[in-house]
Amino acid sequence: MPEVLDPTISARLKRDDAGLVAAVVQQHDTGEVLMVGWMDDEALRRTLTEGRVTFWSRSRKEYWRKGDTSGHAQYVKAASIDCDGDALLVQVDQVGAACHTGTRTCFEAGGDLGAVVGDRAQQDGAGPDSAGPDRAQQDRAQQDRAGQDRAQQDRNEHGNQQNEENR
Ligand SMILES: [Zn+2]
Fold it and tell me: What is the pTM of this model?
């Protein structure tokens, strides 16, 4: 009898056209965001039941259990699904480098993009000194709502970028 992913979990997955869901991998104790990989139902089933992270390789079209060739295994500590089911968060204990380039995380390897740093107090041109307490509270509420809109936009947009894989 073949093992399958728990149907209550499978029903919550919102897969892309290739049947995959993005999985963000995070070091469980430091919070480091290590890498992003892709999972289909079987890769997720293995990840949830074997204590090691398994991805689906889009380039090689095969399962790859992280660390089997590199030695840089990921030992599963927890796994979560996001609100709308199109992304997974896997918290792990990462052995050595998560990135195939040899850096601890794929984002160190990719590098900083030099984003303009935003500041909550400057978003509408009104600093904390120019408004009374009521006004400041109102601004805070508006900014929180804007943040929720941005979060929604992020959810709609993520999952489209290609990811270098590390066996
Ligand atoms: Zn990488």
Answer: 0.73
